[in-house]
Amino acid sequence: MPEKDKKKTSTISPKTPPPAALNKVEKENAVNRRTFFSWLSLGWVAFVAATGGFFTMMLRFFFPNVLFEPVQTFRAGFPDDYTVGDVDLRWKEKYGVWMVRNDEGIYVLSTVCTHLGCTPNWQPSAKKFKCPCHGSGFRMTGIHFEGPAPRPLERFKISLADDGQIIVDKTQKYQQEKGQWNDPESFLKV
Q1: What residues does each domain of the chain span?
Q2: 161-181 confidence digits (pLDDT tens)
Q3: For every residue of 74-127, which 3-state class applies, written as one string?
Q4: Residue 155 bridge partners (DSSP)
Q5: Largest Cα–Cα distance in the chain?
Q6: In the beta sheet, which residues pair with residue 105?
Q7: Is the pTM of this model over 0.70?
Q8: What is the pLDDT of residues 108-118, one digit of tens each?
Q9: Count of other CB atoms within 10 angstroms of residue 94
Q10: Which are the contacts of 101, defined by CB distance < 8 A and separation ≥ 6?
Q11: Superfamily name and number for 73-189
């Protein structure tokens, strides 16, 4: 046989592994101590993060979102602080009320339009409240006279404290269409 046609064959004894193949496999699958502890540490960090996130969500459940409303009963100063024939706007932003004084006394109007809940604006030149949303108009007394509002503005309870200050209680509403404006607590005579 010619030497070209002879295949080189080598015999591998069972006691010795093939030199190149086994060394390569051993190096790819070898897990040394440093690699093992790196992966173990990474696993623990992931576990602690997931557990912390879970417990944070559980803790958040015990503190729900709550909208805090302003105080419903407040002191509004003395009757002499209010001018006859004028609408006082100082409590509009904080408590959502207008204080109105006429020749007979003082009453408190809600700043919520009875149509869709917008806040009307006081127009002193026209002597009326005008709602910017849909054009409802209310007289100084709270009676509606134009626009889609179905009823007048609501009044709140008003009384005098022992020291002579005005106390406004927004928890009690008075509606004109139910005849509640005749109630002595809806109007303060001064």
Answers
A1: 19-61, 73-189
A2: 888 888 888 888 888 888 887
A3: EECCCHHHCCCCEEECCCHHHHCEEEEECCCEEEEEECCCCCCCCCCEEECCCC
A4: 109, 174
A5: 135
A6: 189
A7: no
A8: 988 888 888 88
A9: 10
A10: 79, 82, 83, 84, 85, 86, 88, 190
A11: Rieske [2Fe-2S] iron-sulphur domain (2.102.10.10)
